[in-house]
Each structure stands twice: as structure tokens, then as C-alpha cells.
Amino acid sequence: MKYEIPKLLKEHETLIKGTFRYSNEISFKREETKPWDSKLGGCPYLRDSKDYPTDPVGKPMLFLAQINLANLENIDELPEKGLLQFFVANDDLFGLDDPILVRYIEDYEENEECLVKKQPYENEEYNMNLPFSHSGKMYFKSREMPMSSSLDLFREIFMNKLSEVEYEKLSDDCYSSESRIGGYPYFVQNDYIGFDDSDFLLLQLDIDEECGIMFGDSGNCVFSIPKEALKNRDFSKIVYDWQCC
pLDDT of 198-219, one tens digit each? Predict the structure, then answer.
């Protein structure tokens, strides 16, 4: 749903609308998935188990999510087709201080007989380190959203142009939690990565009851990439962060 400018803020409508971005909001269902589906956890699209990524010491990484780009709408920055896979280091900090991997698979086949069907490294330790209790299928809904009030950029743009009452109202309205691709991230504590106009929100995973998503104590995670790097399909430039209360 598009953000409707309230009467209190009508005077600043042009300024606020100037920050609008399209976001694909994610909902989750505990459903079986095909290898090429958009999904949380489970088994990524793999032709062979040996293609599963490992960290520098050879330990299998945690598979967080896979996005089938054909499922998305109104996101011009992303390729129209292909799969994006998100992996982090397999540890109790959800890979916060270690290298991450976002893998782009431009061409994939929809023939399950040729693909790996079961997560090859799933065991008790692996499951214990995941930031969710159940894997599931992703569903998307496109909407236009204003800038997140948790960004440093939000304060730079609005603080000196709005009255205290107006600023508080806009800040409350622009609480951009929930899982999404595109749009703006929500930072539980601070905008340590300095997300701005030149950045793109590749993925945000937020608290979800259906699949039990939670990073730490009521936290979420953000994958951000410079738009220029995304345009060049350079997924080595991604910044990953998760924060909790």
C-alpha cells in the first residue's frame, strides 16, 4: 500500500514523495519449495552438492535465502531473471564478522531430476545456528514506500525542514520494519553502514512468526549494495549487517 501523506504533512508532500522507492514486501509460508523457488532456508538451487559454498576453512556456510528475480515487480535495478542466493558464515553470530557470499545464477533449469533436492549439510549444529526455526516459501507484494526514519539520511533531509511535531509524525509513519527487497532498510539500533541514495537494499529479513525469523534479541538483517556495483553485477561489494535490541 502506498504511503498517503497525512494532513499534518501536506505542506511537505513534494519533499516526502521525492524519497519514495519501490519495495517488494516479503511474506513467508511453511510450504515445500522447488529448487528454483524464492525461499527462506532449505536447499538452494544446486546442480551438485560439491557446488555448495564453504568458508575459508572449508566449513559449509549457512544458506539464508534464495530470490527468484522473476517473482519481483517494479525493481528496475535488478536483473529481470535469475536467482540470488544468500550465504553467511556458519557460527553463532550469523556470520556478522566473517565473509558472506551472495551468488547470482543468471540461467537455471527447471528439471528437478538434474538438481539436488535436499540440503546436503543439514544437521543439529547447522540448524542451531540458523536465525529462523522453519524454512519456507516467499511471497512478494510491491509497494511504494517513503524513506526509513532509521537512516542517518532521513535526519539530514527532514530534521531542519519540519517542525518537531511534524518530524515526530513522519518518523513514526516511516518505521520500515518487515522483510523486503528494494525500498529502504530498518536499523534496530543505528545506521552503521550509512545507507544513502546510491545504495540498494538487496534483502532485509525481519522478525516473522510463521518461520520464526529472529536475529539475536528481536533483531533483523540487511544486505546492501551500491547501485553501481549492482548494475555491473558485482556482488562482492555487498555490505551485510544485523542488529538486535
Answer: 999 999 999 999 999 999 999 9
- Domains of the chain: residue spans and CATH: 7-243 (2.30.320.10)
Task: Look up cell 551485510; give the residue.
Answer: 240
Is residue 98 over pLDDT 90?
A: no
Mean of the per-residue pLDDT values of the chain: 95
- Which residues, 6+ apart, have CB-to-CB distance to 172 below 8 Å? 149
Here the cell at position 219 is 533483531
Q: Are 65 and 86 in contact (CB under 8 A)?
A: yes
Query: Quick one: cell of 134?
Result: 522453519
- DSSP string of 172-227, one letter each residue: HHT---S-EEES----SS--TT---TTEEEEEEE--BTTTTB-BTTTBEEEEEEEH
